[in-house]
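Entry for cytidine-5'-monophosphate complex. Fields follow.
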Amino acid sequence: MSASSQSLANKQILLGVTGGIAAYKSADLVRRLQDAGASVQVVMTPAAQEFITPLTLQALSGNPVHTQLLDPEAEAGMGHIQLARWADLVLIAPATADFMARLAQGMGNDLLTSICLATKAPIALAPAMNQGMWHNAATQANLECLIERKVIMFGPAEGGQACGDVGPGRMLEPLQLVDAAAGLFTPGSLAGKTLVITAGPTREAIDPVRYLSNHSSGKMGYALAEAAAEAGANTILISGPTQLKTPARVTRIDVTSAQEMYEASMAAAPDCDLFIAAAAVADYRPAQVASQKLKKGAEDSITLTLVKNPDIVASIAALPRRPFTVGFAAETEQLLEHARAKLQRKKLDLVIANNVGDTQIGFNSDDNAVTLVDNSGIQALSQRSKTQLARELIAILAGRLDKHPASEQAK
Ligand code: C5P
């Protein structure tokens, strides 16, 4: 989809600009939104005006830029309530860490936060900040809170930052934001649905420098997350440590251990329609994590006592208002028998079985072939790229979700 396709024809977009260096891209964004057919009203926070002048955005949008909450003249014209009602979408780009914190707190201490409180339109944020600020526990907690309240996240992307750091926190490019905004109005097969997906390995600490883990690359889970976002789902990816980039329009929550993945999944699952467990979760973790690095002793062998981790997907399937719940069965033998056993034992709606003993497909490869197993039978999808396979799986799952009673229980 491109901006020239008028993908936002007749849509009224309230563009909120907050105080980050990426605010200079908002000027281009105004133009791109208009090229796609949207009417744009711009609201700037005081901090945003330190980076770019209201005059620039006024000239580009063709409308006066709104900056004051308590300006009698402005309120007499298009005040915060009128702006909140006017918008088909409130898009905040860039959204700083400070703005996310204020939004999460429900504050209304400037025009933009007041509009966010008053509007019935969807609110989408394009976060932009230093990677350290993005990873900060407070920002991550605010992110989780906003996602829970159905605020939509566009990005952030990863890469070089204005401060010289490299990592997540870059604002998506204007055209990507236009596409993402258009996607909200163009219903895909998963439009209006929320998907939570786990991916990648987990790491179970032995001591401060050692851990138990596995060879999962996370590629299949990330491909599914990308395909789901393309299909219009509000997609939350709960990821163990991987080398992969976050797909566009996917909100990623980083975890390390199985316990952390369990907690993030249980927090996100009650609000979702579809849960896919693609992570290779460690079944066991060391019973004790040594506080200091373990030293080599005289013994020729030592024993590590392991305790069982919670089964994440089974816990989701056991929720009273469960989402449609899908697990993977990565096996090296007796694929279908193990997959059927998993379907029953974990009370899943569907199992995606794949043979990880085959080096052409599975764990680290770019290709995969799978067999879908549910109570009605099996369906084989032959070898193809993980991206293609993911699109097909998402299309199949969207079809099942429409028919399945579990999808109604989630709402
Ligand atoms: O039992 P097994 O690990 O073979 O089951 C695999 C499926 O269960 C995968 O979907 C995996 O993501 C999920 N799983 C989980 N939590 C665990 C173990 C596995 O969600 N502790």
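NOTE: The chain has two domains: 3-182, 194-408.
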